[in-house]
Amino acid sequence: MTLTSHGIPAGRSTAAEPTLRATGLVKTYGRVVGLDGVDLELFPGEVLAVIGDNGAGKSTLIKCITGAEVPDEGHLNLQGNDVQFKRPQDAKLAGIETVYQSLAVSPALDIASNLYLGRELRKAGILGSLFRMMDTKLMRANSKSELDRLGISTLQDVTVPVENLSGGQRQAVAVARAAAFGSKVVVLDEPTAALGVRESNQVLDLIKRLREEGIPVILVSHNMPQVFDVADRIHIQRLGKRAAVITPQSHSMTDAVAIMTGAATS
């Protein structure tokens, strides 16, 4: 496979414009440099993995893309339009949904309520406008349809409280919520870090289904076998910079680790 300098298969860059492009992102914390002129491209319907050692700038990069941090320099472009996110809500409104490692689910609420958390639907007419009553029936029906669309068979009853679910099922709820409302980009930060092998495989299958749906995914992970299983391209961070962009076809896991640690260059 012939690759461009950004790890993009030759010819692809002209066939499709990136859904999300970050250019020259810089973020400093006093004398500590979090990002030092980082570029990133995410194309439609692809899984882009972001890997790197601790302190490489992975989290800072994701935070700048999703509005949790404001870069000191650089630009973000979403579907051909320049954007600037000053808070996570700005990114959500633009169509970028993030699932963090800690998860943002409410254990006491059921699955449907978690999918619509912060976006609750109200009943039509005076019941919704004046009395602000939520349309629980509609939210549950929509939630069931969304889970079926994504092929999540482990969550059959959307009325079950999240506190009764396993770790993998909770992660599936968070990813399903991101897929339902992240119309342009879904960002997953270490989605399998605290899961067992079976639950991790379920999440990886879900990531593949997001790709099949045409939703581009940014996957931040330390798990190299999982990265090489699902990623189309791999963005490698080192010391606040983008060290390389590779593919599972062009490089091995050993190559990726060598670039990540500085033992080799792309």
Automatic annotation (TrEMBL):
It holds the Pfam family ABC_tran. It comes from the Bacteria. The keyword ATP-binding applies. Keywords: ATP-binding, Nucleotide-binding. InterPro entries: AAA+_ATPase, ABC_carbohydrate_import_ATPase, ABC_transporter-like_ATP-bd, ABC_transporter-like_CS, P-loop_NTPase. GO terms for molecular function: ATP binding; ATP hydrolysis activity. This is Sugar ABC transporter ATP-binding protein. It comes from Subtercola boreus.
